[in-house]
Amino acid sequence: MAWRGQLSRNLKELRILFSPNSPSSSSTRGFIENNYKDLKTKNPKLPILIREATGIEPQLWARYDMGVERGIHLEGLNVEQISKALEDLTKGGGAFKG
């Protein structure tokens, strides 16, 4: 999982949106509980924004250089699939570097 240390090199910001009570956000809540500390420890200067809003569909957004953003809907994904989606967004960020 060396890619976790690359987040701050490829991303400018990471946002995770989810509902605090919705069953569709349960995997996203589990991902945050299990991975936030490790991600923040390896990327202390990267803004990792956790946003809770009742009734919202779980989403993961990455902001790259020059304001480019990519997002993924997380509904129906398990914790491992969410981790893979974040890895893909992180590795994809290298393509936006000049």
From TrEMBL:
| Protein task | Accessory subunit of the mitochondrial membrane respiratory chain NADH dehydrogenase (Complex I), that is believed not to be involved in catalysis. Complex I functions in the transfer of electrons from NADH to the respiratory chain. The immediate electron acceptor for the enzyme is believed to be ubiquinone.
UniProt keywords (A-Z) are: Electron transport, Membrane, Mitochondrion, Mitochondrion inner membrane, Respiratory chain, Transport
Similarity annotation: Belongs to the complex I NDUFA2 subunit family.
Q: Name one GO cellular component term.
A: mitochondrial inner membrane
A matching Pfam family: L51_S25_CI-B8
Domain Ribosomal protein/NADH dehydrogenase, first and last residues per copy: 20-93
Which named protein is this? Ribosomal protein/NADH dehydrogenase domain-containing protein
Locations listed in the record: Mitochondrion inner membrane
- Read off the SUPFAM superfamilies from this record: Thioredoxin-like
* Gene3D superfamilies from the UniProt entry: Glutaredoxin
PANTHER family, per the entry: NADH DEHYDROGENASE [UBIQUINONE] 1 ALPHA SUBCOMPLEX SUBUNIT 2, NADH-UBIQUINONE OXIDOREDUCTASE B8 SUBUNIT
Topology within the bilayer: Peripheral membrane protein
